[in-house]
Specification:
four-stranded antiparallel sheet, Jelly Rolls, alpha+beta, seven-stranded mixed sheet, globular, single chain, 285 residues
Amino acid sequence: MSKVLSADAIERLERDGYLTGIPVLSPDEVRRYRANLEQFERDHAPHVKKLKSKAEVLSPWIVEFATAPRMLDVFEDIFGPNLFLRGVAWRNKAPDGSTFAGWHQDTAYGVEMTPRHFTAVLALSDCSETTGCLRVIPGSHKWPLLEHADYDDPTSILARGQQIVSDFDRSRIANLDLMPGEMAIFDPAIVHGSSPNTGKDRRLMALVTMIPTHAMRQDGVRETAMLVRGIDQHDTFDHEPRPESDCGENEIAAWNRVIEQRARFIFKDSALSPSEAYGGSRPAA
């Protein structure tokens, strides 16, 4: 029996490649996690860019945020009871009308998983068209991989500034509008992007990627992941340590270890060097 998603919702996820407007956090939890994020930014300014990839190893409150029971229940409805957290990536935008994400497919620069995985978008602020919410092309997760190009663009929120350069049908665009505390979920093969934030508040949201413990990269390379529900009987991922303090010495060392491995396959075929978000020196939006 499903815990959150109805059979109709799972059918829509398969058909359209996304679901949106799923309530996860209470107003009190939203306020608390936003306060945690803003305190982290004040206390650990030199490490703020690290929040953009593999943030789960940096602080206990990030793990708590990313493993909210209702979120885990959604993923359990899709994958079953044994879950790895593959990564938490904060995608915050200042209300400056600048930072954006070009149209892209995540599968263009990440190795496919078997079975395929899904990414959640969990909001801590209003995520609307005005503030630069995620936009998707419904059903495009069933398209072939489109041609992409990398751009060293300091206003792009993406790791490689990647954008689709081939033609595609833009006649059906869906905005993934989210209220604070709501989540959306999407297939990484779906064509998606976001516009700049022209609102009055920051857009605060995190991408949370979950996979079942029986998942495997199609190239057989081992990644790191954090066991967050159930058990791991497959040993295809190296287990990430749970953080014990907020951006402490051990947590920074753990981030450096896991991000070095992740950067190797994110940038393996790119002319760009890793950004600050992946342990490099190139500026990250």
